[in-house]
Amino acid sequence: MKIFSPLYARAMLWARHRHAPWYLGGLSFAESSFFPIPPDVMLAPMSLANPRRAMWFALLTTLTSVAGGLFGYLIGAYAFDAIEPWLRESRYWGAYEQAVAWFGEWGFWAVFVAGFSPIPYKVFTIAAGALSMALLPFTLASLVGRGARFFLVAGLMAWGGARMEAVLHRYIDRLGWATVAAVVLGVLVYRA
Which Pfam families match (predicted)? Predict the structure, then answer.
């Protein structure tokens, strides 16, 4: 059943849209402070669709993500009391508690690791503000961590270019169904 091929084709079409960089910047900003979808889902196809502009997309993603991280920092610093009840009820509370523990142990490196890894960066931006982390180290760790991640993604996609796009298009349905099966298996194992 070919469900993923049309979605892939549509994503690649959107990745070539003239307003796509604006959407990428908005998504990157929002994800760093409150939105759950990472910008990699736009950065990767945009870099694949237009390899010559991949480094520009990575820079745009990095800068808007750090700006969003600074907004998250402000939320933590000035509005934490307002969001804490919601945060406690959300799936992010455990990650927030982990972020607080990491800040106590590693400080700067906690932000760097969260910026580079798939750990919810937004939780660390809010925690950094709530714990009054010094703004300059926070910003530098964010720039380095987020930049490393986004330039790596864009670079890999640009390197693959048209060849990778063709291979993905050929195997996207198999990859999609394998991912669905892995998620279902993961949920079953987790519940067991």
Answer: VTT_dom (PF09335)
